[in-house]
Specification:
11 helices
Length: 367
């Protein structure tokens, strides 16, 4: 054996006392340790990414939940559905029906979630039943003698007014004198709701009741009639053509005026949307005119109107049935009469007050 050979004999150790087998095992051990370390680092990185994604998802979910059931004007959603369980003193709940993917609200601007959530879920809220039509307890109903006065314009007609405008006009001075005459002769104003209840035997009327109605919703009703009624502590019913108000026609009241009168105790009832001759139209159009005007008024007055004034006094059996099917309690015509009952509640008569109606004539008509 050559003493200068670099090959170690069997059993001879490498420098530092490590055999070949030991060296091999040491290399494998180092590689294993390095592999495990890299694996844990990868797992840790994945876990951190998962936690970050979960955190972002939670924050997004909390953001969306915090925006549910707030005012629709504060929502950047495409659509919102109002749940009809609110009262005038309670804000309606809003259910979101649009997608949320485009929302990126600032976190600092989010409202407090605890103050926005309703105490009750929508399906837990009992919807109040609509107040039913007052009906007689017996097989017969009471016929009530109650004058229903019908006014239109409460103003001086212009110089160039046609005969119809003049005929429908009562000056503010004459209107006030007529109201003072009613008070002075013991008359007390009631409304159509009082009349329905009395006909059904649900309440009693004053000894000399009278109902004051004003048709079409002219602006002078607010400017001239309303102050007189308030001054004398009288109430009246105003039949409104709603689309004239929606279109801001200056001859008619605006919604602010109508809402003010409703809040003051005046009755606001529908006179159709556009004042057409309903007898010339089909059922769908009639429903649109009658129900549409009632729903518009309900949105502004916060109560469901129950009485309809036929535009122009035009009606027939079909129109009466449609009005009844739409859950109205009654309707008024332009025909003359004093007595009203349950069976004829969709053609109650009235007394037209003209520009020529003097106090003496008024007295004769209502006695």
């Amino acid at each position: 054996m050559n003493s200068n050979s670099n090959i170690s004999p069997p059993g001879q150790r490498l420098p530092y006392g490590i055999s070949c087998v030991g060296a091999l095992l040491l290399v494998i051990l180092i590689l294993a340790v390095l592999g495990v370390g890299l694996g844990f680092a990868s797992i840790g990185g994945n876990n951190q990414a998962t936690k970050t994604a979960d955190t972002q998802h939670i924050k997004t979910t909390e953001t969306l939940e915090a925006l549910i059931r707030v005012s629709p004007t504060a929502l950047p959603f495409d659509e919102a559905l109002v749940v009809p369980n609110a009262t005038p003193s309670q804000s309606p709940e809003i259910l979101i029906t649009a997608t949320y993917s485009h929302l990126t609200p600032p976190a600092d601007d989010l409202p407090n979630q605890s103050t926005l959530r309703s105490e009750h879920k929508p399906d837990e809220v009992e919807q109040p039943a609509p107040f039913p039509l007052p009906t007689p307890d017996e097989t017969y109903s009471l016929t009530q003698k109650v004058p229903i006065l019908m006014y239109h314009y409460i103003s001086q007609p212009p110089e160039d007014a046609d005969k119809y405008r003049r005929d429908l006009s009562v000056s503010p001075n004459d209107f006030k004198a007529q109201m003072q005459f009613l008070i002075g002769n013991g008359y007390e104003t009631i409304d159509l709701y009082d009349l329905s209840l009395a006909i059904a035997g649900k309440n009693e009327l004053p000894p000399k009741p009278v109902i004051i109605t004003l048709d079409d919703g002219y602006r002078d009703n607010y400017e001239n009639a309303f102050p007189i009624l308030q001054e004398l502590d009288l109430k009246a019913t105003f039949f409104i053509v709603t689309e004239f108000v929606d279109l801001a026609d200056p001859k008619y009241m605006d919604w602010r005026m109508i809402e003010e009168m409703a809040a003051a105790g005046m009755r606001i009832e529908p006179h159709s949307k556009t004042h057409p001759d309903l007898t010339e139209h089909d059922r769908d159009f009639i429903i649109w005119e009658v129900l549409g005007s009632a729903e518009t008024l309900e949105a502004h007055t916060k109560y469901r109107p129950r009485y309809f004034a036929y535009p122009g006094g035009w009606y027939n059996d079909e129109i009466q049935q449609i009005v009844a099917d739409l859950d109205f309690w009654g309707a008024v015509t332009t025909a003359y009469g004093l007595s009203h009952g349950f069976d004829d509640r969709f053609e109650w008569t009235r007394i037209r007050i003209r520009d020529t109606t003097a106090i003496a004539e008024l007295a004769d008509m209502i006695e």
